Amino acid sequence: MRLLATDLVKVFPGVRALDGVTIDLLPGTVHALLGENGAGKSTLIKVLTGVHRPDGGTLRVLPDPTGAPSVPGPGEGEELSFAGPSQAQAAGIGVVHQERNLVPGFSVAENIALQDVPRRRGLVDRAATRDLAARCLAELEVDLDLDRPVAELSVAQMQLVEIAKALATQSRVLLLDEPTSSLTSDEADHLYAVVRRLRDSGRTVVLVSHKLEEVFAIADTVTVLRDGRSVAQGLPLSGLTRSEVVDLMVGRAHADLELDARTVDRDATPALELRGVSTAGGHRDVSLVVRPGEILGLYGLVGAGRSELARAVLGLDTITAGTVLVDGGEVRIGSVGEALRKHRIGYVSENRKEEGVFLEQTISRNVAVTVWDRLARWGLVRDRSEDGVLDRYAERLGIRLSGPRQLAGQLSGGNQQKVSLAKWLAADCRVLVVDEPTVGIDVRTKAAFHELIAELAERGLAILLISSDLPEMVTLADRIGVMREHRLVGEVDNDHHYATMSGKVIRLVHGEGAEAPAA
């Protein structure tokens, strides 16, 4: 099925999200959809999948240029108009969102068949449900226990169930939104193999990703959006370089970020220190220090326990042994609020949609929430006071907004992350825990985040940086600690040369050597 969208327009109050976008999706290809945060990618996906109705343009099915026989679905030349996602699914268009949409308590088979549950005499046909799920998983060459609850699966396995779920609805066009954002490199390689099999079976796969290395690894063609317009449409990736693609995305040449070296006083009292910490989550005997003006990176595979360690320090999990010190004094923190009020420790969560921002509240309220006690007069906080806090950080962080009363949930992912960071900057923290700061963020915004984090360290903040992006870690961290199976297995001083540092870190990740902590 060849799907052609021509001159699509979508307007929201104060924003022209799509301004004449054209995209031609050919069967048997992997088509990358790229653009900065706010470029219109999410809106385009929602139009293609029936969540939004376009205000202009057309969406139609055209004959397969390869001459392949037609498949069940809309007729050739037919103009499509979707009143909702179910109609898009019926037309053969499926989507796997970055935020998984599975029922944790249901089995693998039940989740796969959930969109159109087989029935017999008005009751769920269990045998047919299992047969459908088995066929979809077999097409992906994935072996999963059909009766296993989805809650017991790994992140990568859940992603594959999502894809099988789309296949169960006869999807001929499959949109994958940041499919590897939470996967290890080995899990991502497995997913790439699945994508290639889908392509070779004649399906169209649309890949939305900010990881250019994976785009060049598996995509055939690329469409680039900028400011709601398609500045490149269906270009063969084989004829483009990475820098040329980035230039299309940001509208200018983009050089890899190189940061000035910082000098960290190794004799200074640590701003944050752990001594032999163990937790209810399984950490054992973890010791580390972060000094003022220093960025300590925590690296490791998904499930190594990095985020869980930070959350335990902040009172979100139980510390069962060991000591936490702030500025040399022993503390026991009971909550994120206590960490901020008593110790000036901020926490930029990886989960920005559930923990980073209040999606149904205004941007100004999100940014000012950490300083309400300073803004309150007779127990009330005025909108004008919150707006003043936002004004100080909106331009500095480049938050793209229509106004202070705009809801945070209406922002792109990158701008939501900026709002999440702004609230902790407003609180004037001395220690900042930053967990996966640039997941799902475009290259220019990522560079801006890197510059900002380095600037904060230069100003004297102690930063604990958790990231699964090794180039990001090598760019930013002064020291890199590696975690494996909830233990800190080694630590290395960072010379900021990727070729040498990546080898050292990867060997630690896979247990091929350990280095004594550089503290």
From TrEMBL:
Listed InterPro entries: AAA+_ATPase, ABC_carbohydrate_import_ATPase, ABC_transporter-like_ATP-bd, ABC_transporter-like_CS, P-loop_NTPase
CDD domains in UniProt: ABC_Carb_Monos_I, ABC_Carb_Monos_II
The keyword Cell division belongs to this UniProt entry's keyword annotation: no
Keywords tagged on the record: ATP-binding, Nucleotide-binding, Repeat, Transport
Pfam families the UniProt entry points to: ABC_tran
Region (Disordered) location: 56-81
Record-level Gene Ontology MF annotations: ATP binding; ATP hydrolysis activity
Every ABC transporter domain range: 3-252, 261-510
Cross-referenced SMART domains: AAA
Protein name: Monosaccharide ABC transporter ATP-binding protein (CUT2 family)
